[in-house]
Amino acid sequence: MTTFVEPATLEEACLLLADEANSPKLVSGGTALVLMMRQGLIAPTSLVSLGAVPGLSSIDHEKDGVVIGARSTLTQVANDELVRRDAPALAESCRLVGNVRVRNVATIGGNIAEADYASDPPAVLIAMDAICSIQGVSKRRSATVQELITGFYTNSLEPDEVITAVTVPVMGAGGRSCYLKYVSRSSEDRPCVGVAVMAAFEDDAVRKLSVVVGAVADIPQRLDEITSVAIGRSLDPTVRDEIADSYAEAIDPMDDARGSAWYRRRMIRVFVRRALERVATT
């Protein structure tokens, strides 16, 4: 039998999570966790809810960027004016997750911690160098989203640690971003390929560029050694083709119900090229 515990403070939640004898699981929105329990994939003795912990659902603009509380729902993130202005690709990726019923309950912190290879927001968060604030029993620390997601549904959080917020740096002048999601089945499906691009330009030359491909491997694929060829150059069709071809060749895509490795490799090339064209011509 699973017990449901609703601590009033973050410190209490961390202490409950540290009690590994009760095999606790942290629950925020619960959209993924409940499904896994129903399917018998996990059977926690206790569920530790963040529902009563205050201060985890705000979205604020600070000097380091947009700070999004971990319990902010994907709908909140998608509709927030600050996010839409300063991190439009993140707003778009949250808007494309599942359906409105999922987005109204699922949280940004839970989305990151779940480390679902086929979720939309992590690719954008990695492209934008987003940083998570993490609280444990005895310490606080920070880690990039890229550092947190370590494999299929696995992360680098300690058992007692909770993501409290994610900070998304503001792109600033000359910054552009986009997220393109390709689904091979229904419009509400998880992506066959998702591509996030963050670019900064000075005049017509690329000053910074990151490309992240999601839903094709155990972790989102960011290959800075490939995008470095664009620095100081115009993001013209030749450069865009070079990067798209290199990503398609470098990534070893998986097979699943949404597409074979053969098919995914071709869609990687197509959607990396399209995403680069979007930021180059917007």
Q: Can you tell me about this structure?
A:
The structure is a single chain. By secondary structure, the chain is of the alpha+beta class. The protein has three domains: 47 residues, 2-Layer Sandwich (Uridine Diphospho-n-acetylenolpyruvylglucosamine Reductase, domain 2); 110 residues, Uridine Diphospho-n-acetylenolpyruvylglucosamine Reductase, domain 3 (2-Layer Sandwich); 107 residues, CO dehydrogenase flavoprotein, C-terminal domain (Enolase-like, domain 1). A five-stranded antiparallel β-sheet has the order 4-5-10-6-7. The longest helix is centred in the last third of the chain and has 21 residues. The radius of gyration is 19 Å and the shape is globular. The chain starts with a strand and ends with a helix.
- On the 0 to 100 scale, the average pLDDT is 94
CATH topology of the largest domain: Uridine Diphospho-n-acetylenolpyruvylglucosamine Reductase, domain 3
Ends: how far apart? 54 Å
Helical residues, percent: 25-40%
Any low-confidence stretches, pLDDT <50, length ≥5? none
Order of helical and strand elements = EHEHEEEHHHHHHEEHEEEEEEEHHH
Give the number of helices.
12
Which CATH C-level class of the largest domain is it?
Alpha Beta
Tell me about the biggest sheet?
5 strands, antiparallel
Q: Briefly note the structural class of the backbone.
A: alpha+beta
Give the strand order, joined by hyphens, for the main sheet: 4-5-10-6-7
What Rg is obtained from the alpha carbons, in whole angstroms?
A: 19 Å
The domain count comes to 3
Query: What percent of residues are in strands?
Result: 25-35%
CATH architecture of the largest domain: 2-Layer Sandwich
The number of distinct β-strands equals: 14
Coarse morphology: globular
